[in-house]
Amino acid sequence: MQRTTLILDRTAALRETFGIEASWWSSAFLADTQALVMRITGAIAIVTLTIHITAETTEGPFVIISSDTPHIPETRIRDAFTLLESGYDVVVGPCDRGSWYILGMRQTSLAAHIPPNGGGLLPWMEQMHQRGVRVIQLPLWFRIMHPTDLATLAIALRAMPAGHAPATRHLLGDNEGSLAREWGA
Fold first, then answer.
1. What contacts 45, CB < 8 A, 6 or more positions away?
2. pTM of the predicted structure, to 2 decimals
3. For 35, how many CA atoms within 13 A lie in the half-sphere containing its CB?
């Protein structure tokens, strides 16, 4: 079964928050996210601003991840596909601020019901349950939405394998393991 991953391009939102620096962050985030998807599925993810249209043109289950989550654990993407293939209609990874970091759908017809990525996730999930859609939730994770999130990101990357998100690590100053040395690893 073909696994399709869409990366929701959050460049514009990051630029609003981070200013001109967002161009560097966005490029690193997208490169790391696409490399992550390639490791998991063997295919490059589709980066899109128009997820509704792109999702409707895919075949089989698809997963959307936000480009402001270059640090997403590989297991979350694998779990999303596994749950979709086991019969769930929708897989949601809730974000710490009421939105989502990963969203998987088994049928392309559900693409018309993609929740906004700015919040309102719980009411959307309740609506899906009321329609008889089988929804399952992944563990909570965080997206990079504010400059203060960069410190949290640096800490999260310290606990991940060294090859995870190399472009993002470089921008955070982890050149040749300096972050690991700083924390005594």
1. 5, 6, 7, 33, 34, 37, 38, 65
2. 0.82
3. 14
Read out DSSP for 60-107? S-EEEEETT-TT--HHHHHHHHHHHHTT-SEEEEEBTTSSEEEEEESS
Distance CA 184, CA 118 (A): 37
CA 43 to CA 31: how far, in whole Å? 13
- DSSP label at 184? T
Integer Cα distance of 55 and 102 in angstroms: 14
Class of residue 106 by CB neighbours under 10 A (exposed 0-12, middle 13-18, buried 19+): buried
Classify strands 4-8 and 46-48 as parallel, antiparallel or unpaired. Answer: parallel
At 112-141, the pLDDT tens digits run 777 766 667 888 888 889 999 999 999 999
